[in-house]
Amino acid sequence: MKLDPLVDRLVTFKLKDRAETLDGTIRAFDEHGYWVEGGTIAAHLPLGDDKDSAVRYLEFNKIQWLKAKTAN
Questions:
Q1: In DSSP terms, which residues pair with 67 in a beta bridge?
Q2: Yes or no: domain 10-68 corresponds to CATH 2.20.200
Q3: 21-60 in b/e burial notation, b at 16+ Cβ within 10 A?
Q4: Euclidean distance between CA atoms 36 and 56, whole angstroms
């Protein structure tokens, strides 16, 4: 598997159903989407099976665009 350069990076997301951009840290990915932790996007994603986990799943088909945030 090719390593995704966005894993463990803070990313800005523009979701198809939201006007504002949101951010979060990508922790992993699979063929359907990203596992995202924290940031402003967390409140907009459903809880997974582990309700205590801070990592949530975001399907690719819900993303309009995304880009890695640059370090300041």
A1: 12
A2: no
A3: ebbbbbbebeeeebbbbebebbebbeeeeeeeeebbbbee
A4: 5
Give pLDDT tens digits for 20-48. 999 999 999 999 999 999 999 988 888 77
Instruction: Tokens for 8, please give them.
Output: 């463990």
> What does R_g of the chain's alpha carbons equal in angstroms?
12
Query: Has residue 3 got a pLDDT over 60?
Result: no
Cα–Cα distance between 36 and 25 in angstroms, integer?
Answer: 5
Strand segments (E) across the chain: 10-15, 22-29, 33-37, 55-59, 63-68
